[in-house]
Amino acid sequence: MSVKALAFVAKSGSGKTTLLEKVISRLKDRGYRVGAIKHDAHRFDIDRPGKDSYRLTAAGADTMVISSPEKLALVKNHAVSPPVEDLLAAFFTDVDIVLVEGFKSSSLPKIEVHRRERSPDLLCRGKEHDPMLLAVASDEPLELDVPRLDINDPDGVTDFIERNFLS
Predict the structure, then answer these.
(1) Which residues are CB-neighbours of 155 under 8 A, at least 6 positions away?
(2) Contact 155/26 with Cβ under 8 angstroms?
(3) Whole-model pTM?
(4) Among 71, 72, 53, 74, which Cα is nearest to 63's?
(5) 24 alpha-carbon distance from chain centroid
(6) What would the pLDDT profile of 109-157 be if each residue is shown by its tens digit?
(7) Phi and psi (nearest 5°) for 154?
(8) Is residue 111 left, alpha or beta, with left meaning phi > 0 and alpha meaning psi from -120 to 50?
(9) Residue ranges of domains in the chain, CATH in brackets
(10) Which helix (H) or strand (E) segment is 111 a member of?
(11) Whole-angstrom Cα distance, residue 6 to residue 35?
């Protein structure tokens, strides 16, 4: 079984996370199991100095999992960021859909998030023509070869996802 995944791509500060929060909440309200992946081009640390899990990783553990009755977290050191397809196959076989923030160069189907005030140009239509672009969620009217969704209408964006991915 392949995992259904859809990437939300945009320039930083366009509102990807805000839109994804609302769409995830609406999909959950509709009864779907939803996964999420956030691509971070920068270094991050989910652990805090002094905590046992941090100490184990700092001591040299290449992979460290912390688990509780409610959730688990995995810290795995690697030389390069793994392809999103590997992450989907390894961690998301138990969900109906995975919404991915970022990974604009991936082969995943995409919705581009666009705000007029952030940039006049689109990532997936302009210098680059990404054939995996399915729609653009924007706050302005645009002439496009894909549907334009209203960035301020998360119900409409969720309806689009449900029609095109979950039916």
Answers:
(1) 26
(2) yes
(3) 0.89
(4) 74
(5) 10
(6) 999 999 999 888 899 998 889 999 999 999 999 999 999 999 999 999 9
(7) -60, -25
(8) beta
(9) 5-39+81-165 (3.40.50.300), 45-79 (no CATH)
(10) strand 110-114
(11) 10
